[in-house]
Write a structure and sequence with these properties.
Elements lengths: L1 E2 L5 E5 L2 H4 L12 H6 L17 H15 L3 E5 L2 H4 L9 H16 L3 E7 L5 H5 L7 H17 L5 E6 L1 H10 L10 H25 L4 E7 L3 E3 L4 H22 L6 H9 L15 H5 L5 E5 L4 E3 L29 H14 L4 E5 L17 H19 L4 E7 L18 E4 L4 E4 L1 H12 L1 E2 L17
Parallel strand pairs: 2-3, 2-11, 3-4, 4-5, 5-6, 6-8, 7-9, 8-10, 10-11
Antiparallel strand pairs: 1-14, 12-13
Helix pairs in contact: 3-5, 7-9, 8-9, 13-14, 14-15
The chain binds beta-D-fucopyranose.
Beta-D-fucopyranose binds next to loops.
Length: about 475
């Protein structure tokens, strides 16, 4: 057995739009995901989150599952359109009351609530007024955070301001793959800045409302490796790391925006330098507010190949991605160790939590109703080994949240990519813990990993998705 440090926090993560359903219940307003998902072609299976896992009505049962699993904490998000149906001004007590009940229920079950304040569901009226690309949205976000943390701050001990600013800004505003589906780089860079500024200002508000709570932000970070040792691939790798990782880490840790990445955006016509028009005096200080922890979401690495050099003129590839999960992401556990060491070395957050890690595999029930999701079990084991190696190397890693508690609505992929350690039958809403849930339960109970990695003892069976 390899033991984790005493006090290591074990949990599972979800987000509101992906599980709650109840799209119009209790006065919930429209979010950018409702609007985006309705666009033909936006979502792989044409679905939306209107029903999802019906968690809004089944939360007590889901809480029983968490309790059975022995979870010590549960990371969930609060959807802004339930609290402010039109984005601003008029809050909705019925929406807020749901999270009061959920928090009280979790505490009664001895499960620590970890609240993500923004996990992508912007109220549509705010998007109609410019969304994250405009500065007014920052003010609106601070009002929203104030109301939520004023209500829950007496009981919630850990708040995450934002989930994955890269996804919010780049997938949402530059690539158009996520809501609001815009393809406008200058807007995306402004959006990224406004999300960071919102984090800085919200952190201060949370400190006032919940002086005993820890505050952090969650980033999706991707370690990058050049596909070959060529100068072109190394340069492309540095650019990837800059755009993906440093663009967020540098300002959060007081270094401002990385100049090499600014230059790339200027070359591409995304920015007119030298000034970044959306950065007002004092913003960078606000963004660099000290926090209590950094949340890291880790799924995979990037193997970067330069597009500047024609393939035949570049050096032969020496690094090839390995096996992939159902969503096409390479399984690369050592990337988690490397990433944690790098963040610790370069930015030294006071504390780190893995706020998401997991894998999409569609393994479903066999004829006995058992779900032998061996690949997911191997994925979890190998990534926890990597996390433990980082702890042994001195990284102050204090928690791990598996993504996800339940199979759920995987954004533009719809319901076909299943990340849950609990199976959801979407026709009946039945929940069935997969073998990985049993595995996770044992790891949490022991606060340790078994020495031997899980291996297949049953023939694997796949089910057709609906
Ligand atoms: C992350 C998101 C989360 C989930 C996983 C698979 O980027 O934070 O909501 O969709 O990916």
């Amino acid at each position: 057995m390899s033991r984790f440090p005493d006090g290591f926090l074990w949990g599972a993560a979800t987000s509101a739009y992906q599980i709650e359903g109840a799209g119009r219940t209790d006065g919930r307003g429209e979010s950018i995901w409702d609007r985006f998902a309705a666009q033909p072609g936006a979502i792989a299976d044409g679905s939306d989150g209107a029903v999802a896992c019906e968690h809004y009505n089944r939360w007590q049962k889901d809480l029983e599952l968490m309790r059975w699993m022995g979870l010590q904490s549960y990371r969930f998000s609060i959807p802004w359109p339930r609290i402010f149906p039109t984005g601003r001004w008029q809050s909705n007590p019925a929406g807020l009351a749901f999270y009061d009940r959920l928090v009280d229920g979790l505490l009664a079950a001895n499960i620590e609530p970890v609240v993500t304040l923004y996990h992508w569901d912007l109220p549509q009226p705010l998007e109609d007024a410019g969304g994250w690309a405009v500065r007014d949205t920052v003010d609106a976000s601070v009002e929203y955070v104030d109301v939520v943390t004023d209500q829950l701050g007496d009981r919630v001990r850990r708040f995450i301001t934002h989930n994955e600013p890269w996804c919010i800004s780049v997938l949402g505003y530059a690539q158009g793959l996520h809501a609001p589906g815009r393809k406008d780089w200058p807007a995306a860079l402004a959006a990224a800045h406004h999300v960071l500024l919102s984090h800085g200002l919200a952190t201060q508000v949370i400190r006032d409302n919940a002086p005993n709570a820890q505050v952090g932000i969650t980033l999706n970070l991707v370690p990058a490796e050049p596909a070959s040792p060529s100068a072109a691939d190394r340069e492309a790798t540095r650019a990837f790391d800059g755009a993906f990782n440093r663009w967020f880490l540098d300002p959060l840790y007081g270094r401002g925006y990385p100049q090499d990445v600014v230059a790339v955006h200027v070359d591409a016509g995304n920015l007119v330098a030298p000034e970044l028009p959306f950065v007002h005096p004092g913003d960078l200080e606000l963004i660099a507010v000290p926090t209590d922890f950094l949340g890291v979401n880790y799924y995979s690495r990037a193997v970067v190949r330069s597009e500047r050099v024609p393939e035949e003129q570049n050096a032969p590839r020496t690094v090839h991605p390995g096996e992939r999960t159902d969503i096409g992401w390479e399984v690369y556990p050592d990337g988690l160790r490397q990433l944690l060491l790098r963040v610790h070395r370069d930015y030294a957050p006071a504390s780190l939590h893995i706020t998401e890690n997991g894998a999409a595999y569609d393994t479903g029930p066999d004829e006995h109703g058992q779900i032998h999701d061996i690949e997911r079990q191997q994925f979890l084991h190998s990534h926890l080994e990597a996390a433990l190696a980082a702890v042994h190397a001195g990284v102050p890693l204090h928690g791990y949240f598996v993504w996800s508690l339940l199979d759920n609505y995987e954004w533009q992929e719809g319901y076909r990519k299943r990340f849950g350690i609990v199976w959801v039958d979407y026709a009946t809403q039945e929940r069935v813990p997969k073998e990985s849930a049993h595995q996770f339960r044992a790891i949490v109970a022991a606060n340790a990993l078994p020495a031997v990695a899980p291996h297949a003892t049953h023939a694997r069976r796949r089910v057709l998705q609906r």
